[in-house]
Structures are given as C-alpha cells and as structure tokens.
Amino acid sequence: MASTKYIFVTGGVSSSLGKGIIAASLAKLLQARGYRVTIQKLDPYINIDPGTLNPYEHGECYVTDDGAETDLDLGHYERFLNVATSQANNVTTGRIYQSVIDKERRGEFLGKTVQVIPHITNEIKERIQILGNSGDYDIVITEIGGTVGDIESLPYIESIRQLKWELGKQNSLVIHLTLVPYLAAAGELKTKPTQHSVKTLMESGIQADILVCRTEHELSYELRAKLARFCNVEQEAVIQSIDASTIYDVPNLMLEEGLDGITLSKLNLPNTSSPDLSQWNEFVSRHKNPKSEVTIGLIGKYVELQDSYKSILEAFIHAGAENEVKVNIESIHSEHITPDVIKNKIAKLDGVLVAPGFGERGIEGKIKAVQYAREHKIPFLGICLGMQMAVIEYSRNVCNLSKANSVEMEPNTPHPVINLMEEQKSVIDMGGTMRLGAWECKLEADSIVRDVYKNDLILERHRHRYEFNEAYREQLEEAGMLITGTNPDTGLVEIIELPDHPWFVGVQYHPEYKSTVSEPHPLFVAFVRAAVSYVQDRSNATMT
Questions:
Q1: Is the pLDDT of residue 2 over 60?
Q2: Band of pLDDT at residue 423, cut at 50, 70 and 90
Q3: Phi, psi (5° rounding) for residue 64?
Q4: Residue among 60, 322, 393, 512 flagged as catalytic
Q5: 384 an active-site residue?
Q6: What gap in Å lies between CA 209 and CA 35, rounded to an integer?
Q7: Which residue has better confidence, 147 or 7?
Q8: pLDDT, tens digit, for every residue of 239-250?
Q9: Are 63 and 513 in contact (CB under 8 A)?
Q10: Exposure on the CB side of residue 518, measured as CA atoms within 13 A
Q11: Catalytic pick from 76, 415, 510, 521?
Q12: What is d(CA 424, CA 494) in angstroms, rounded to the nearest whole number?
C-alpha cells in the first residue's frame, strides 16, 4: 500500500476554469485537517519553463526559493498553504522530453527505440512521484494544465491512467473540473458539455472520481442527479463551484460542498475532525470588511493582462487585510504616461508602485512616475526594474547625470548606473540563467526596511540580470540616496531609500513572491500603511 496518496486534477470544456484555485482550496482544507499536503503543476507546453515567455503569453513567471522559474499557479499554492514550493512542483513537456533525450544520448535505454510509451510516460510518472517519495507529504495534488482532449496533454493523461492502476484504487483519485454553462435563451443550465468532457476522459481510460462543476447558478438536486447518472459518479461526488466574489472564498465554498470529505472517503483516510479555518476566516473577514481605502498606482508595461502582475495584486490583498483597508489598484501603462496622465491619474494616487519588467518599452514613463512620486512625496515602492528606474531617475534629476541609463536600455550610455551583472556577461542562453531564487540581504540600522523586517538579515527571491553599478554608489550616496540593503557575499546593492521622503523604497528582489494569506509580506504591509498615512495627512492638510 502506498504511503502517499495522489490526487489528479484535470479540466474540460474550457481553460481558465480555475483548476489551480480548486486544487489549492482542497489542499487548504486537507491541510487544515492536519494532513501534510503539496501541489504540483504539469504544463503541456514545450518550453523548458516559463522564464522566456512574454507575460502576455502566460502571465507572470513565479520564482521559488530554489531558483525555479515556474507557472503562476505555484503562487496560488504557496499563498494558500504557506508552504514553499520548488522545481519539483512544476514540470513542463519541454523538461520531460529534454530529460528523456539526455538519457537516450547517454545510452541509458540500452539501445531500445525511445517512444512516448513507455519512456515519456515513465518520466512523467517519476516526476509526479518525486514529492510523494520524499516522505514529507501525506497527499500530493497534481494539476494537469490545459483541457482533456488537447493533443499536447495526452501523455499526461496516459501517465495518470497507468499510475491509478499501479497505485491502487484507494491511493489515488481524479477530480475533473468542468463547465456547466447557463444559456440565457433557453433559461437553463446545460450538462452536455460536462458529459462530453467526461466521455473524452473515459476514452483515454480514466474515470473521474469527483466532478467539480463551475457554474454561475446553483445546481439543483435534479441536475446533480443527471450529471451523476451520465458521468458514472456518485451524486455526492458532484461538487458545485459557483462564481465567488474572491478566490479566498473558495475553500469555504468547497467545505460547504463536502469536497474534502468525499476526497478523504475515497482515499480511505480518516475523516473525523473538522478543518480549522479560523485564521483563514479572520483574513477573509478583514478583506471583506475594510475600515477605509487607498488607491495605489501600479505602473507597468503589461497591465492589459492582470495575470502579468498576479503576485503583486495578491500581495496587496494580503497587506490590505492586515491594515483593514481596501487597496484599489489603478493600473497605468507606462508607455502611455503623458502630462495629462500624471495630472489626472498619478497626482491623485495614495501610493505608486513601479513594477518589474524587461526591455526598453515604456521605460521613460516609469521614470516620469518615479520622479513625480519622489518630488511630491507620494509613498513609493519600486520592485526589481522599478528599483532600477528609481536609481536612473535620481541620477538624472538629482545628480545631474542627464544621460544616465541602464545598459539593458542603452548599451552605449555614458553613465551606466545600472549595469549587466559580471557573471552574466558571458551568458549566451537566455533560459534559466538569470540571478534566481532566494539570496541573503543585510539591512542597515536606522532604515525603513530594518524597521519593516525587524531583522538584520533577510532572504528574498530574485529574477534579474542587471544590477546597481557600484562605480556610482559614492556619487549617489553623496547626493542623498541611501543604500540600506546589500548582499553580504557579493556586495550587490539590494535596497535603496530616500531619507527626505516619507516612504520611498526600491528593492532589487521580488517581495511579492513570498506574501501569503497567513504571512502578508511586511514590505507590502508597510507600504500600504504609508499610503493610509498619506491619505490622512492630505485630509488633515485640506481641513486646515
């Protein structure tokens, strides 16, 4: 009998139904019952990882402590469970095929013809079971990207079919997430898309154990009975996933539907205690019942797709709940920042965040936003490229280095205040070669960040090739910029602050990756608190 239980989450009918949220919500419920749970994502695209993908293609690239560039769903997993993920939690078809081809080149297959079955499927099964074999988890939930019937997903579906047989009936189960659409013309919910999706899954040799049905309207008893009858599942295993006002409602909705209970029953696991969601529900209550609100401007170049900044947006939700305020996000495209945008939008903000990114498009707009926030004392947070833009802006407008720039944007700039990292200068391959993962940062005493973190040494996740140019450090410090965080081993400048500003911080790392429901990131919490103070000060000034 397997010591670790496996849950596979597949999707049908449509993408973007929320497999990641359902997987994270179920994991949260099981964790709240005392089980050790982790989640992994299998992505069917041929890229080795999402690190080279444009954010418009796949949303943000999430980075783990061990330096893996992964799918954004891993962010949901960490935010819900407050458990760090790793490279083992995200597998792509590209990584699977690369591994198999490398083995073939080394002669590990003893001259056999290398085929999808068994070589590719064996590699997939091995990757699925790495986490379970570690002994660290009671339950591993594996989410399969895409939808059933996609050509690229077939090897994953076949691997699940084999694993279900190999693991045994009570050691694994399949949750199939599907859509029950409402047709306004007919005035009713339609079950045929779900029936066809389940049929497609069965044609691949897999019987769904639990159906989770995304819907805009309540599923009636009769409709659930119909789905159970035609899809070969028990009626109590037909779970309704109705649209929610926030993703953080979903664990409670799944609890009401009994998803965790039916899961434990099918896996032959004890189902005696109720999940303890007290801390979770305190967060949800604060999130839904704010005492005031602030408006933060998110200055970026990918703002048309909200998933491009998913972790930042969620970090603001966590920080808002911690401060008992609603954080309204004003997304502003940095390429379109004009004097009118500054006057009509940026001037009215309670805080400015300049977001991460790559390439020269929209850079001058980011610099203008930094300048306005600096000169008008609006709370400011710059993340990665945002921190670099703050350095360029200060160099140009305070240090009088009018042509200061990053060599990423202008290779021939006379003042490369942001330069290519030394170890990056010989890099040719772009994928997986940046400075990635968790790195230490030593904080200076009597600084904003030292007060925020309450610690002298922190560990934060990175994803960049360019850095603060040490050759300009003395000049910038003499002009008033403070270097308040550096890597103790390399001396890399990690954090800059401005002492003559109420709250102005730029960080080279990505704090948003480490913000969770139970542990909101302290930098976001402090930034939102600064925005609240700014609103109060502005209100007091108006009254007087």
A1: no
A2: low
A3: -95, 170
A4: 512
A5: yes
A6: 21
A7: 7
A8: 999 988 899 999
A9: yes
A10: 13
A11: 510
A12: 17
